[in-house]
Amino acid sequence: MRRILTLFVVLGAVISAEAQTLEECRRMAREHYPEIRQYDLITATEQYNLSNAARAWIPQVVLSGQATYQSATPTYPELFQQMLTANGVEMAGIRKDQYKVAIDIQQNIWDGGQSRANRAIAEAEAAEQRSRLDVSLYGLQSRVDDLYFGILLLDERMAQTEALIGVLESNLSRMRTYYNNGVAMQADVDAIEAELLTARQTLGQVDSSRANFRRMLEVFIGQPLRSKVLERPVMQTLASRTSARPELAMFASQESKIDAQRKAINTSVMPRFSLFAQGYYGYPGMDMFKSMMSSEWSLNAMVGVRMQWNIGAFYTKKNNLEKLNTAKRQIAVQRDIFLFNTEMQTMQQDGEIARLRRAVEDDDRIVELRRSVRMAAESRLEHGVIDATDLLRKITDETTATLNRSTHEIELLQAMYRLKTTLNQ
Question: Does the pLDDT value for residue 327 go beyond 90?
Answer without folding.
Answer: yes
